[in-house]
C-alpha cells in the first residue's frame, strides 16, 4: 500500500472519528433540549395556574423540604423569569444544534469524497 493511500486511510479514520463525536454531541444536545422543553411546559402550566388565583390567595414555594409563603406577584415574576431563561436556553441549543448538523453534513460529504477517491485509486490499481 502506497504512503498516499495510507495517508488517505488515516484521514478517513480521523474524519469518521470526528463525525462520531459530532453525532454524540448532537444526541447530548437533543437530550438537554428535551429536558428544557419539559421544564418550559411545566413552568408555563404553573404560570397559568397562578393566573387563575385571586390577588389575596396564599401561594407557597417549596424550598428543600419546607413550604415557604410567597407573594403572588413575586411568584408570577419568578416563574416568568424562569420561562424567559428556559426559552433563551432552547434558542441557544437550537442554534448550536443547527451548527452541529451543518458540520455533520460537511463531514459526511468529506468522508464520501475521500471514500470515492480511495475506491477510484483501488479500481485503477486493480485494472493495472
Describe this structure in a few short sentences:
This protein has 128 residues and is mainly α.
Tell me about this structure.
- This protein is rod-shaped.
- Helix 1 (3-52) packs antiparallel against helix 2.
- It has helices spanning 3-52, 72-127, and strands at residues 59-63, 66-70.
- It is built from two helices and two strands.
- With 128 residues, it is mainly α.
- It has a single domain, classed as Helix Hairpins.
Kindly state the number of beta strands. 2
CATH architecture: Orthogonal Bundle
Beta-strand content estimate: 5-15%
**Anisotropy-based shape:** rod-shaped
The secondary structure category is: mainly alpha
Strand order of the largest sheet: 1-2
N-to-C SSE string, H for helix and E for strand: HEEH
Report the uncertain regions. none
CATH level 1 class label: Mainly Alpha
| Rg computed from alpha carbons, rounded to a whole number of angstroms | 26 Å
Give the overall average pLDDT.
Answer: 92
Rounded to the nearest angstrom, the distance between the terminal CA atoms is 15 Å
Total tally of structural domains: 1
Described by its quaternary structure, the protein is single chain
Major sheet details: 2 strands, antiparallel
GO cellular component, one term: cytoplasm
Family: Belongs to the prefoldin subunit beta family.
GO molecular function: Hsp90 protein binding; protein-folding chaperone binding; unfolded protein binding
Coiled coil: 83-117
Amino acid at each position: 500500500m502506497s504512503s498516499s493511500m495510507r495517508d488517505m486511510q488515516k484521514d478517513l479514520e480521523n474524519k469518521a472519528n470526528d463525525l462520531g463525536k459530532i453525532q454524540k454531541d448532537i444526541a447530548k444536545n437533543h437530550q438537554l433540549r428535551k429536558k428544557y422543553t419539559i421544564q418550559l411546559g411545566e413552568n408555563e402550566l404553573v404560570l397559568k395556574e397562578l393566573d387563575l388565583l385571586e390577588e389575596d390567595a396564599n401561594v407557597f414555594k417549596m424550598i428543600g423540604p419546607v413550604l415557604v409563603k410567597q407573594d403572588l406577584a413575586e411568584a408570577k415574576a419568578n416563574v416568568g423569569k424562569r420561562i424567559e431563561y428556559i426559552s433563551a436556553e432552547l434558542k441557544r441549543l437550537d442554534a448550536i444544534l443547527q451548527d452541529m448538523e451543518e458540520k455533520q453534513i460537511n463531514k459526511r460529504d468529506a468522508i464520501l469524497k475521500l471514500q470515492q477517491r480511495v475506491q477510484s485509486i483501488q479500481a485503477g490499481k486493480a485494472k493495472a
